[in-house]
Amino acid sequence: MLKVDNIKKKFTKLTKKKEHIEFxxxxxxxxxxxxxEIIGILGPNGAGKTTLLRIIxxxxxxxxxxxxxxxxxxxxNETEIKKNIAYLSGNTKIYNTLSSYELLHMCADIxxxxxxxxxxxxxxxAKILNMESxxxxxxxxxxxxxxxxxxxxxxxxHNPKYYILDEATSGLDIISSEIILRFIKEEKKKGKTxxxxxxxxxxxxxxxxxxxxINKGCIIAEGTPDNIKKDTGTTNLRDAFFKLIEGDNHEE
Length: 252
Hints:
Elements: E1 2-14, E2 20-33, E3 37-42, H1 49-56, E4 64-69, E5 72-73, H2 74-82, E6 85-88, H3 100-110, H4 115-128, H5 144-156, E7 162-166, H6 174-189, E8 193-198, H7 201-207, E9 210-215, E10 218-223, H8 225-232, H9 237-244
Parallel strand pairs: 3-8, 3-9, 6-7, 7-8
Antiparallel strand pairs: 1-2, 1-4, 4-5, 9-10
């Protein structure tokens, strides 16, 4: 189980008048995610989604609060935790001069995958993500959708238990998006836990067991898509979100 307890993250920004103003990108966020569950993290740009996922992935330290995986915390078990998580950022850069195969082999070495298991694992992943036709092509020559599949492939080379995916299908064509969403559903069936951040409400409604809506760094709703729609008297998550923030200027 992944447990996030009362996470707060404070930043300081400089105004046009050269004033330093403190603000919370995350302000008291708590959540739990179980095995075999896809949790959607939803909200507009600037809501605090990426900050939250970076804290959960151990890239940022929270100002206060805690994160634990199966009872283990980062302070005492960082290496063990990171062996069991995969983090995909929306703006991750990868080596354009390598082939997809070379990148996956390098990542497998970094994660300590046994030599005898690397080749079969790469071939398994290539089949899962429909990468076989471009596995040996230089990454710099790939399309946006193909590159994103390579990005996801490097995240799962070590067979992690937890996936932390930030805008995994943003800007992709319908075929690449469908391949990635199908992969996420299959990983859930294998018992994996998936945090899935997106601003595509319809996409989240389709694949998520529960969703957590965030606005201005705070959770404004949590539950199954059906329950949130029922509670807000709406027929889709997009309308539910706007119903929840009625009267609140959500622009940053």
